[in-house]
Amino acid sequence: MSADPARAAVHAAVEALCTDTAPDADFVPGSTPIPPSGKVIGAPEKHAMVDAALDGWLTTGRFNSAFEARLAAFVGVRRALTVNSGSSANLVAVSSLFSPLLGAAALRPGDEIITVAAGFPTTVNPILQNGAVPVFVDIQPATYNLDPRHLDAALGPRTRAVVLAHTLGNPFDLAAVTAFCARHNLWLVEDCCDALGARYTLPEHADVWLPRTPTADDPSLWRAGGEVERTRHVGRFGHLATLSFYPAHHITMGEGGAVLIDDPLLARIAESIRDWGRDCWCAPGCDATCGKRFGWQLGDLPAGYDHKYTYSHLGYNLKISDMQAACALAQMDRLEGFIAARRHNFDYLSQRLADCEDALILPRATEGSTPSWFGFPLTLKPEAALDRVEMLRWLDQHRIASRLLFAGNLTRQPYMAGRDYRIAGSLETTDRVMNDTFWIGVWPGLDEAMLDYAADRIRLFLGRDFD
Ligand SMILES: Cc1ncc(COP(=O)(O)O)c(C=O)c1O
């Protein structure tokens, strides 16, 4: 707590006002809502946000630096770059691959990027925003991730990258995807927005491939890994990875996200795109970090043109405020507990619904993975002859909120009409997910009484007894 008496008084008032937002100790079955996701914040986050407000710095400052360092250390990457949403993180990550600083390895409009259609739109939108062509591959039932058996068929002469999310916290098959990317010299972006804390272990028989940034002499995007750990956090397998800190996610700052990067050149590019596209990398409030602010000659600008106003990328301003960073920094203390609670809730629901497999496809962790679950997905089997809308209405009546697997089949969304994309093979499972899948919550604000009630209502709808 602060040594400054005025600040200490403010913090005492904050303390008196704060309790954690969840779980709801007064749960009344059928009356208390059971949300699919939510935040757990309390005194630590509010103290930190008040401190950031009292600093009066407002833009990214000391809390942001501390948060970026702590997040990078947690995942095990060299750099975490905060941005104002997970969608912005994807925009920065994918746009970075188009940077002229990457020379011949840079992506160009018209290049193809392999992805899936069963997911969140802003995983795919940056591909379109940069003029590239998404190539959609079908997914597997139960893991809801890309089916790697279809990868070879998706490859074309202009394939340059793979961009995939770890669906609902369940890692995709990183052994297959990294080997495919290494074989064909493709960039890999991992959307970890729903998967902070998930881990994956490369099987003993699988080659370890580590992403590298190509040079003028060596265009390879991967190197054989040697003695590198086989078990790593997701976000440490591809060239760039992304996170979201919207309140539904594993930790929150209200609105926010991050790009995770190991390579210094990619970090510089991503930072430039986040910060207006400028060439300069001064933190807010600093000048001449490079030591030669008036000593550059870049582009067609006159020699000595102020580096602070020299732009090497088509950029944006996607930075966060220090109040947001303060909230997320306090959340880091709770992250391991949050992940454990999500896993516990997932296992609890799995066990409560284990005997419903004749009617429902229960979710399955990808082999070799330790997911960090975002939700509990269920798919109605055709033999159950049940209607999803009826089931979701039934859950709704009992105040159990559900969500679909985001866009279902993205190619069927209104905004995709007339856009340039390619479908490799069929999207049969993706369509099934669009029609028959939904998910319910496993977030730390739910306790066993709530999960019991949710499982019981699902069982009742299927005509089962409570157990
Ligand atoms: C997989 C995935 N990627 C990206 C996003 C976008 O994150 P944000 O809402 O922070 O923009 C989401 C949102 O939930 C998501 O689920």
What does this protein look like?
With 467 residues, the protein is an alpha/beta fold. It folds into 2 domains: 62-330, Aspartate Aminotransferase, domain 2 (3-Layer(aba) Sandwich); 335-461, Aspartate Aminotransferase, domain 1, CATH 3.90.1150.10. 32% of the residues lie in helices and 14% in strands. The chain has 13 helices and 16 strands. The protein has helices at residues 5-17, 43-55, 62-75, 86-96, 121-129, 151-154, 174-184, 264-274, 322-332, 335-352, 388-397, 428-436, 448-461; strands spanning 79-83, 112-116, 133-137, 159-165, 187-191, 199-201, 209-211, 222-224, 231-233, 240-244, 257-261, 360-361, 369-370, 375-380, 422-423, 437-441. The strands form 4 sheets. It has an 8-stranded mixed β-sheet with strand order 1-11-10-5-4-2-3-15, sandwiched between helices. A 3-stranded antiparallel β-sheet has the order 9-6-13, with no helix packed on it. A 3-stranded antiparallel β-sheet has the order 12-14-16. Strand 4, helix 7 (174-184) and strand 5 form a beta-alpha-beta unit. Helix 1 packs antiparallel against helix 2, helix 3 packs parallel to helix 9 and helix 4 runs parallel beside helix 5. The radius of gyration is 23 Å and the shape is globular. The N and C termini lie far apart (49 Å). The model has no long low-confidence stretch (mean pLDDT 95). It binds pyridoxal-5'-phosphate. Pyridoxal-5'-phosphate binds at residues 85-87, 90, 119-120, 122-123, 165, 191, 193-194, 244, 246, 257. Pyridoxal-5'-phosphate is lined by residues 85-87, 90, 119-120, 122-123, 165, 191, 193-194, 244, 246, 257.
